[in-house]
Amino acid sequence: MKHFDVAIIGSGPSGASTAFHLAKKGISTVIIEKEKLPRYKTCGGGFVFRGRKNMPFDISNVIEREFNTVDIFLGKKLHFQTVRKDPTITMIMRDSFDNLIVEEAKKLGVTLLENNKLTAITFKDKKAYLTTSETEISASFVIAADGALSPTAKMAGWDKETRKLIPALEYEVEVPEEDFNRLKDEVRFDIDAIPYGYAWNFPKKNHLSVGVASTKKAKINLKKYYQEYLKTIGITTILKESQHGFQIPIAPRTDGFVKNNVFLIGDAAGFADPITAEGISNAIYSGVLVAEAISESNLHLEKAKELYLEKLEAKLLPEIKTALWLAKWFYEQKTIRNVMLKKYGQRFSEAMADIFHGERSYPKDIKQAITKKIKELVF
Ligand SMILES: Cc1cc2nc3c(=O)[nH]c(=O)nc-3n(C[C@H](O)[C@H](O)[C@H](O)COP(=O)(O)OP(=O)(O)OC[C@H]3O[C@@H](n4cnc5c(N)ncnc54)[C@H](O)[C@@H]3O)c2cc1C
Q1: Which of 45, 269, 270, 274 has the fewest Cβ atoms nearer than 10 Å?
Q2: For domain 2-65+91-163+250-323, is the CATH number 1.20.1530.20?
């Protein structure tokens, strides 16, 4: 049976990035991926600059469009726009983007086992034994980078669901040339286009990715809101459309990120942004952190666990914790939020743009700051 230092389950941005960074340190790494690459992944494909600026190689070949200007709408009355020197959101299609990272990792010696679905995992003598649909291997470390459903986490003992998973529906849409030309240069978010959430229009090279996401777990007819949103952005004729629904985990697990030899990253851990549900940048970032932890530990399991948790606590988890509070307030306190946005909407949009650029993070004292502003408005 072939042995690797690290086996990564999943070749999305989190897994592929981890593989890249581990291989750079000379650590023997295998990616186990159930699909044949490149594979479609349900996603708006909006990659924010905080992720893009830290990419260790050129991604220009997979860029569909870049947006330095971002538009946020709240109904028909409020519209805020931010403009930045660097692209706030870069549009990518996930098949080619994810595959690019895998290819870069392969150049550094990473083994890819595609069409290999992980079906079982056991632990013995400090090693993990992995069974896939095609083969068996062993590894000293296992990284669960297998997305929102994370079968690896289930197999490895995370038997309760403690993340907050929200529904999202996205369509790849082809529209008449006239509509495309009108919409192709504007990336927009429409807050409240769906209860407790937002809709988006993310233009790609030749089509639009249009979608809706709600931060409430309740049953919501996503399709109905998507269809209404098409009207909002003036689309009445559709030439071609494909529907993709999936879940996004917007709150981290509360029962730990490491068990036995298994480390959780990306959606498997629940690291998407609670306000925007943007998950690619944190998926990549958590991949970098776990790779650093393993390499700095010199492949010492207990030390690596300690380091990974320390690294998560340094920035990512506190940021998400603040954003969780803010998201709940933002989507559930509509009346007061709208009053606040009327007065401070531009400031809020600028702050979000700064966060997208990695120039600031969610303020730790957000609760006090908002309470203070509400008092100023009311009294
Ligand atoms: C509708 C929608 C729109 C979104 N839009 C955006 C957006 O615009 N911008 C943004 O930043 N984020 C967006 N997200 C979130 C983003 O897609 C995720 O946060 C991101 O893909 C997480 O990356 P990951 O590497 O953790 O997992 P994934 O990208 O989900 O990768 C997991 C991989 O694991 C593989 N896998 C699963 N099970 C197994 C198994 N048993 N064996 C082997 N392989 C397995 C899968 O095939 C997949 O390749 C969106 C999500 C949805 C649902």
Answers
A1: 45
A2: no
